[in-house]
Amino acid sequence: MKKISIVSGCYNEKDNVDDLCNRIHKVMEAFVDRYEYEIIIVDNCSVDGTQDRLRELARDDKRLKLIFNARNFGHIRSPYYGIVNAYGDAVIYLASDLQDPPELISEFIQKWELGFKIVLAQKNQSEESLFMSAIRKSFYSVLRFISDDETELVQNYTGFGLYDKKVIDIARMIDDPYPYFRGLISEIGFERAIVKFKQPLRKKGKTKNNFYTLYDNAMIGIVKHSKVPLRLMTFVGFVLATVSMAVAVGYFAYKLLFWDRFNLGIAPVVIGLFFFASVQLFSLGIIGEYVGAIYTRVNKKPLVVEKERINF
Fold first, then answer.
1. CB 183 within 8 Å of CB 226
2. So what's the pLDDT on residue 261?
3. Which ranges of the chain does DSSP label H, i.e. alpha helix?
4. Edge-to-edge, what's the strand order for the sheet holding 2-10?
5. pLDDT class for 65, splitting at 50, 70, 90?
6. What is the dihedral sign for C-alpha 142, 143, 144, 146?
7. pTM for this prediction
8. Mean pLDDT lowest among 57-71, 73-87, 224-238
9. Among residues 169, 158, 180, which one has the least CA distance to residue 117?
10. Angle made by CA atoms 121, 126, 130, in degrees to the nearest 5
């Protein structure tokens, strides 16, 4: 009998882990005659009592398997670690805050049974604020536009979905200590199915997303899938250098011709100085993101260091 591994990462989700497991079990009841299944939760060193509650749940349910991290390894590495440590014939990932509805699992399995190796959940509607929704849509549109290759990144896809064992085997071979999973899945290829859904608001607990995590996700996506920012800096630098030279020559010639009447003061110099300084700082920031990505890749840090495993 084939096995389905359902993976979720969590950090301080004491109020949600019961509902998460119960809703998954309820969905999988319809498939127990065809598949074995397991729930793998990777806890990112929670400090609110989540680990204690998970231990209690795991004592009564051997299908619930737990990985406790030695520390908080962040929102990128920990979920990915759970995915590549799942060895089912299909691996399903969903967030533990229940904004990824477990009820969609049945649709994922149905698509998988039709032969799709990848089934992605795409939120075409969301109960979040219109401002955040607009920001997200704009980012995905820009990322798809500047992508170097034909990976066809899926808009409004966050990692929630089903992945065949063949896909996960390939992901394990990609030696990246800080992967952009949603982009990696697109790079792997295979024909994929899309399941659209309306994302609900978080009902319990507090969101762990903040400006830094959103910025981190955005920059990882850009530096791993596009060299356009670097080439744009080269182009802008060339254009500005040409304009600067032309202005300098024109200024010098005009000064020689109209020595006594031409006096603009230092205002143009100050404005030009600050303008070019801002362009240089922006360019250095972009270069820094790419250098940082390279440094992370060659540094060879482990994805996660485990403290404990339960029910494996």
1. no
2. 60
3. 17-28, 50-60, 74-84, 105-113, 130-146, 165-173, 181-188, 211-225, 228-257, 267-299
4. 192-199, 118-126, 161-164, 90-93, 2-10, 35-43, 64-69, 306-310
5. very high
6. positive
7. 0.79
8. 224-238
9. 169
10. 140
